## 1
Amino acid sequence: MPDNSFKPLDPLLHSELRLAVMSILIGVDSADFVYLKSETGATSGNLSVQLDKLQQAGYIEVKKGFKGKMPQTVCSITDRGRDAFASYVEALRSYFPTQ
Amino acid sequence: MPDNSFKPLDPLLHSELRLAVMSILIGVDSADFVYLKSETGATSGNLSVQLDKLQQAGYIEVKKGFKGKMPQTVCSITDRGRDAFASYVEALRSYFPTQ
DNA sequence: ATAATTTGGTTTATAAAATAAACTACTTTA
DNA sequence: TAAAGTAGTTTATTTTATAAACCAAATTAT
């Protein structure tokens, strides 16, 4: 008896920019603000806000430090983030013809 | 040279309820308001608003009539809607590890 | 040396979207 | 004929996304 109904989509991941960030972070050990910004094409403000949300949800870890003399924000995905991402993919599947 | 960057997600489809509606309509000839409401679990108000948006985008056709004496709103997907749905799926893929 | 520009962000304001609540018009049932 | 139910729409509220403005420090140009 296959589950036919639509699974709810985690609103934290169902956002273009946050999804892009998670998509990047899931494939690397860590990535900094500047890199995430250039890869996603986001504005600094938007990125800053969305990183905060992901961090507050415990989906990513954000470490602030310095690279030489310049401030640097380094992000990495957490286990919880990895789980959420996987669940989101699963949920998405329920909206599309299987396979 | 694979296209590695994130493709923009059509904001009209990147919405849980509108996506669910499209997901239903892509698999049937047509579906009425009551059916869409029960399948998606949406409130009437929300469904009404989102159907309007899909119609205004030309993604669905909405026909208002009567079933017996009761008003009936029948929806069907358009070619444009089908195309948009396919493009959305393609775009989504760019956020996930291929396959 | 200091003024202008750039870097790496944050904060605040605005626009857009989703959702819920209230309402309408009509039908059916008690 | 009054109450309740059906099939929606409209309006108001809340939430979200985005952009604009700002800040501190570093770098570059004068």
Note: Chain B has a mean pLDDT of 93.
## 2
Amino acid sequence: MARYNPFEEAYDLLMAHFGPQHWWPADSPFEVMVGAVLTQNTSWDNVRKAIDELRANGLLSFPALSSCAPEEIALCIRASGYYNLKAKRLKNLLELIVVDYGGDLDRFLADDLQQARERLLAVKGIGPETADSILLYACNHPVFVVDMYTHRVFSRHNLLPEECDYHTIQEIFVTNLPCDTQLYNEYHALVVRVAATYCKKTKPLCGQCPLQGLNL
DNA sequence: CACCAGGCAAGTA
DNA sequence: TACTTGCATGGT
């Protein structure tokens, strides 16, 4: 039986402090995919405004967004920043569904993890975090999502080195945690929550952080 | 006013 | 390979 380790302990502390986060904040897998692109280096408040605007224009479905010109998408997602770039990235993602899955979103959602991840990463504008967010929160694959917050929170608590790339961080977590979609879902959401609450970039340390209770 | 926010790709040397 | 730059809005 596996030993209790700091990464499991951190999860228990975060869960005890914050409770379940009920991620991803979206009404459908397609909305998750759109949000995953829009939230690149962008606050969720701004992303929500953009998504609301897409919804108001009836564009929050694969067929609707597919038949929409990038210029019109850009207008809707203005609030999320980088709007021309992200309109193009959304189009690239939609094109993947058309080319590799015959325009059938459900086929993409049901594809196996390795193939779906390879294909996502081949899309211009989809990097490791965006791909893994889609795989976990839209497809329900057991993928541990890493982001800036993951690195900041855990390096500050000396559980990760200062210099550590995406794949290395991901490996550390998956080798120290059971492979479980629901666990990974809740874990990443809790990391975002604790970072937003107690681990801001400008504030070096916070005594209120529940991870201060880590027993190392 | 400066800085930050759930990245990624392209350019340079 | 390793470092830099562009992309852009809205909140603090």
Note: Residues 6-22+144-213 of chain A form one domain.
